[in-house]
Amino acid sequence: MHGPASASTLSYPEIASIFSEVFHYTGPLTQTTSPDDVGRWDSLQHIALIRTLEMTFSVRLSMDEMMEIRSVGDIETVLRRHGV
Q1: How many CA atoms lie within 13 A of 61 on its CB side?
Q2: Any idea what DSSP says for residue 11?
Q3: 72/74 Cα distance (integer angstroms)
């Protein structure tokens, strides 16, 4: 995707399903959605999020990448880096 994406446009629509499954979150997702917006996004659920991302997109995230993810936009950045 070239140019700035709209805040409400996700590059990976699967992320909405993952957030529903992992966090039971059905609110709006934007690139800026973070743990501050998702009540169940704590350290334990972060691990579940990472595992689900790895399984869904067939990637293996490094510890640094796991720590880098602090928003939906960060997830998209990491996935793009893996060529997904």
Answers
A1: 27
A2: S
A3: 5
Which parts of the chain register pLDDT below 50? Answer: 1-7
Q: Which of 24, 15, 27, 8 is CA-nearest to residue 77?
A: 15
Q: What is the pTM of this model?
A: 0.87
pLDDT, residue 9, reads 77
* CA triple 34-42-80, angle to 5 deg: 45
Q: Kindly state the tokens that stand for 75.
A: 């997830």
CA pair distance 49, 30, nearest whole angstrom: 16
Residue range 56-79, pLDDT digits in tens = 999 999 999 999 999 999 999 999
